[in-house]
Amino acid sequence: MKILVTVKRVSDPEAKLKIKPDGSWIQTEGVKFVVNPFDEIAVEEALRIKEKQTGEVVVVSIGEKVVTEQMRAALAMGADRGIFVNYTGSYDSYDVANILQKVVEQEKPDIIILGKQAVDDDMGAAGFMLAELLGYPQAAFASKVEISDDKKKAKVTREIDGGLEVKEVELPCVITADLRLNTPRYASLPNIMKAKQKPVKEVTVDALGAAVKPRVTVKKLTEPPKRKGGVKVESVQDLVTKLKNEAKVI
Amino acid sequence: MSKEAVTKPIGGGFLLEPTSAKDIFVPEEFTEEQLSFADTADDFMEKEVIPLQDAMEEHDKKIELNTKLMKKAGELGLLMIEIPEEFGGLGMNLSTALRVSEAIAKSGAFAGSILAHNGIGTLPIVYFGNEEQKKKYLPKLASGEMIAAYALTETGYGSDALSAKTKAVLSKDGKYYVLNGEKQFITNAGFADVFIVYAKIDGEKFTAFIVERKFEGLSTGKEESKMGIKGSSTRPVVLSDVKVPVENVLGEIGKGHQSALGVLDIGRLKLGVASTGGSKEVIKQVAQYTNQRIQFGQPISSFGMIRRKLADMMIKVYASESMSYRTSGMIDNAVHALDHNAPDYSKKAAKIFEDYDIEASIMKVYGSEILGFVVDEGVQSLGGYGYIEEYKVARAYRDARINRIFEGTNEVNRLLIPGAIAKKSMKGELDFMGKFSEISAEAESGKVNKKPEPGFLGVEKLATDIAKKLTVYTTGVAVQKYMAALMDRAFQFGRGEYIFEQLANMIIDVYAMDSVVTRTLKLKNMKGEPAVEIPVLLTRALVYETLNRTTLTARQVLGDVAEDNAAEFAGYEKALSGLALTYPLNVSGIKDKIAQHIIEKESYSL
Ligand SMILES: Cc1cc2nc3c(=O)[nH]c(=O)nc-3n(C[C@H](O)[C@H](O)[C@H](O)COP(=O)(O)OP(=O)(O)OC[C@H]3O[C@@H](n4cnc5c(N)ncnc54)[C@H](O)[C@@H]3O)c2cc1C
Questions:
Q1: Which of A7, B32, B179, B256 allows an S-S link to B239, with CB 3.0 to 4.6 Å?
Q2: Which residue of A has its CA nearest to B534?
Q3: Chain B residues near residue A196 by CB distance under 8 angstroms
Q4: C-alpha torsion A44→A48→A49→A55, nearest 10
Q5: What digits encode the pLDDT tens for the residues B344-376?
């Protein structure tokens, strides 16, 4: 069983971010970068499937050279090898899906697992688009994944409003990982050292034959408006008047 | 002695010679792999240890939880960093070990357990064990299958540990030693499997022994109720007729002090860097809290006195971080140059740690005292809430206190600093007195350069140079005057200590100045000037305040040394004015910028 997992480099969700003065993107100086937490869950799930079934876990990352740091982190968790799609420039979810489609066509994995979204731009679209482009069945927001004994199907449990939905999809398929799917393992120190030796293949977008032409572009980033301090009202009457005249909610 | 020997970075050498930025190691040079190690440690502490902190403090759960967490730490490889590869470890250098120790310092109590195992518990075998001992114990200590402890202190012998009374007597058949005595305050005693025990053979020859818990006659007393690091295990270890096979003598008979003190040097460096890690954690909490807490209609992080606290915390942490990694970098370079396959490799490596004993004592004192400062101002910044256990700073405050006491009290380490300089000068490793004559002549004739070189941190480089000269001059004057008295025990431990303490403070301050200036210079060379705005502010504030303090201390020491003889002091006064450097700086303006940065980042971030 071959499983392909995506790994995106994102700013540490705990970091206090500042926007560049021109509003084009965040300031990256001094900011820590990590594996997108949902991708980490995806890697863990792939490793668990592999441990039950035997096979191979391949991680793929797209971006500038620095993204290989996060790819190494996934390899240190236990993934077998990496594919680094070297691409400098902006791209949107559809471009990502396009690039991944080409990777899938070359690698022919049985399962593709993505994080349900990346915590930086929170688009949450690449998984759906990829399944559509490939014409594969998909199961998004997985909280449990079981592979059938004949390795032909995956039973995927999804958390939906008011309960659970269980889907059965045929392989090959696309799955996206939700928060409660698993708790990712730590990369042990010896495995971090071993990860250095694992093969990473570098490819370009051109060599893959993928077209990148962003349909969505970031125009400007702005900070959320600063919250103004509240006021103390003297009486209930005062409150009602303010709600009526100032807030205009009643 | 040759000039060359003095100029290459050697222990204590920073006092006498300018430091070149390219020669020092800075934490910004850590590799991706080293940082990943730290990330694993960080994650492990955050997710596995911190949630158990309260439970670990209960006496009946402490042993079980510590054992469980140590096993897990072992599985992750956190216990094998410094153990050679051929014995199941990773064979990593000291800087790596320090970086991981910094991450582990998030929880004071468990950091105590891990660091005692990794450091003083395991390293005596790494550096002083023979092949069989290494083969037998190291793989198990690396994996966490066995946990180690270090048993030196006794009830009657704490700071004076080498006088310890525990006895070892060789059995008639010559197969084992019989140990009798009681060790006090032993970290990990509740669950350790191996104890490095120091005892005197026939009441004379101070020797180290590897003693297993399962050896008959070894028992541990009741858990101590402590002020802080309550989650760690601290107990007396009682040895009554414990039979220790002769194969378990560690190192040479009568030379136990080598391993006892040798591993303390590494322990002190780790304690220093762990204090840095603990401090960063507190800065984060204080920044977050003071941003949210509103008084007088505005966040308290907008008040000058709170901002000053935040800025001072960051300045000190920057210094201690710079000093720690600079030191480990020097040691790593020296160890790296050794032939790792030579049979005496471990011994030579241990000797290198000893060569940097001045820096190790400096880091122990500086690290533990900045942590003391940070937790104290941290509690203060939270007001009444800082005093309430629900907030993490209260625990950090309690946990911090022990750092000034164990691994050699700060008093003992302050004594060691001028003591080690004297020893190195006597051995000809440092040309201290030569430098002293050079500086006195220069100072008394008013020929000291006081013109900063133009450009980046020019004034700060000059100020550091002046502080070095002031320190060497003051120390030299004291040594000259009291040369004979130093042999006298009453003077040495009595009046002498008043002087040693101040000299130690000056030397520590010089190391701080020298380390931040060279680090910031190096960072500028690595990243360009715009990227080092914050390091520059931190450097300028630290150097300015430290130079002022050094100048004042020099004057006080010389006053003490002159012993109210006005004519004698007049001579010192002349040199002091020759070495005086003052320059104007809006230091509170600088601190306000630093504070603003912390408040925006809500963490220690350069
Ligand atoms: C929680 C905890 C864990 C510990 N873990 C270990 C461990 O794992 N293994 C181990 O062997 N020990 C351990 N210790 C012991 C610790 O190292 C000693 O407590 C410490 O060295 C001080 O010894 P003491 O308590 O006897 O104090 P004392 O030596 O009695 O000192 C009392 C005071 O006198 C000062 N003093 C002593 N001599 C001088 C001097 N010449 N000049 C100036 N001042 C002086 C000291 O600085 C101190 O302020 C631990 C202690 C604690 C509390």
A1: B179
A2: A30
A3: 33
A4: 90
A5: 999 899 999 999 999 999 999 999 999 999 999
pLDDT at B4 > cutoff 70: no
Confidence bin at B6 (pLDDT 50/70/90): very low
Best CA proximity match to B197, nearest among B136, B139, B240? B240
Mean pLDDT, rounded, for B252-260 = 95
Bridge partners for B140 per DSSP: none
- Tokens encoding B29: 């040079």
Q: Give the mean model confidence (pLDDT) for residues B470-496.
A: 92
In a domain, A231, yes or no: no
Q: What residue ranges do the domains of chain B occupy?
A: 13-147, 150-250, 256-406, 412-588
User: pLDDT (tens digit, 9 = 90+) per residue, B239-249?
Assistant: 999 999 999 99
Say how far apart CA B192 and CA B233 lie, in whole Å. Answer: 10
Q: How far apart are CA B168 and CA B161, in angstroms?
A: 16
Instruction: Kindly give the pairing relationship between strand B194-201 and strand B148-151.
Output: parallel
Give me B47's structure tokens: 């997710």
* Number of separate domains in chain A: 1
Candidate from B115, B153, B237, B492 with most ligand 1 atoms within 8 A of CB, to mutate:
B153
B418-455: pLDDT as tens digits: 999 999 998 999 999 999 999 999 999 999 999 999 99
CA gyration radius, chain B? 24
Question: ipTM, 2 decimals?
Answer: 0.91
pLDDT at B1: 36
Cβ B150 under 6 angstroms from ligand 1: yes
Strands B176-187 and B234-245: antiparallel
Pocket of ligand 1 contains residue B583 by CB under 6 Å: no
Q: C-alpha angle B200/B87/B252, rounded to 5°?
A: 20
At B484 the pLDDT is: 87
Does the beta carbon of B29 lie inside 6 Å of ligand 1? Answer: no
A15 min Cα distance to partner chain B (Å)? 7
Q: Which two tokens stand for residue A68?
A: 């290989």
The whole-number pLDDT of residue A25 equals 87
Please report the DSSP string for B196-213 in residue order. EEEEEETTTEEEEEEEET
* CATH of the structural domain B150-250, one choice from 3.30.470.20, 2.40.110.10, 2.40.50.140, 3.10.20.310: 2.40.110.10
Decide which of 1.20.140.10, 1.10.8.10, 2.60.120.260, 1.10.540.10 is the CATH code for B13-147.
Answer: 1.10.540.10
Report which of A10, A72, A6 is spatially closest to residue A45, judged by C-alpha positions.
A6
Q: A169: which residues sit within 8 A by CB, 6+ positions away?
A: A137, A138, A139, A153, A154, A156, A175
CB atoms within 10 A of CB B111: 26
State the pLDDT confidence band at A247, using cuts at 50, 70 and 90. confident
Scan residues 72-91 of A and list those with Cβ closer than 8 Å to B.
Answer: 72-73, 76
The label of the residue with tokens 């209609």 reads: B297
CA-based torsion, B25, B26, B29, B31: positive or negative: positive
**Can you tell me the distance from the alpha carbon of A104 to that of A166, in angstroms, rounded to the nearest whole number?**
26
Q: What CATH number did the domain enclosing A187 receive?
A: 3.40.50.620
**CATH number belonging to domain B412-588:** 1.20.140.10
Q: Which two tokens stand for residue B479?
A: 């040594």
Does A69 reach chain B within 8 Å, measured CB to CB?
yes
pLDDT score at A78: 97
Burial class for A215, CB neighbours closer than 10 Å (0-12, 13-18, 19+): exposed
